Structures are given as C-alpha cells and as structure tokens.
Amino acid sequence: MRYKALLDDGRRLSFTESVAAKLWGEIDGRQVQFANARKDHPFRVIAILGGEVAHAQIASLGIREGQRLSLQTVCPDEVVGEPIPAQIVVTSADGLRLYLRPDQAQLILVETRAAAFA
Fold first, then answer.
1. Helices (H), the chain
2. Which one-letter DSSP state was computed for residue 75?
3. What does pTM read for this prediction?
C-alpha cells in the first residue's frame, strides 16, 4: 500500500506501508504506528523504528521525531516490471526464513526426523 500524508510544514509525502509501520507516534492520545493512523487526525512522531537504513530512508523523506503528519489517503501501490514467480518459503524451528524460487526449491531434499535417526 502507498500512504500519502501531509507534513506539518505543508509538504506532501508519499511512502510505502513498510515506512508507515516504522513511524511510532501519538494520535488522539493513543500511541500507534502510522500504519494505523486515521485520515485528517494529526499524528505526532515519537520514534522511528528500525535500524540505520530505515532511519536514513525516513530522514530522506524529511520525517523527524517531534513532527506531525496527517494521513490523506492510502491506496494500492503500483506494480512495475515483470511479475516474480511465486516464492517458496522454508521456515526453520528457530524462525529463519529462506525465500526460494520454484526452480531453487526443486533442488531441496527434506529428510524427516525418523529417517535422520535410522
């Protein structure tokens, strides 16, 4: 999704849902992510979540802690380029995720626990 917002200095911003999820702030006395903001309700940025790359990306938009944003609209994001084939996700017990193309997944051999101990 694409979020369009108005910054307190009058600038119009457009950013992705991943950016909206990294903006932590206050709206109507409640602390929420900007992804949960309501249209035309002032949202004060309290913190920017994420690592250095996320902070740099958000700073490049001109968003800083203490500023106010006002959500204008949320709409589907444009798809550019060729569609990616469906990915296969392999998840380990400890939460590691591997995203594989179907041709890569075909090369994986899975062994059951019973076979591993035989």
1. 17-22, 52-60, 102-105, 113-116
2. E
3. 0.67
Token couple for 6: 């108005």
d(CA 11, CA 9): 6
Alpha helices by DSSP H, listed for 2-112, are 17-22, 52-60, 102-105
25: which strand partners? Answer: 32, 45
Checking phi first, is residue 81 left (phi over 0); if not, alpha (psi -120 to 50) or beta?
Answer: left
Amino acid occupying residue 17: E
Per-position pLDDT tens, the chain of length 118: 899 999 999 999 999 998 999 999 999 999 999 999 999 899 999 999 999 999 999 999 999 999 999 999 998 877 666 666 677 877 766 666 777 888 888 898 877 776 656 6
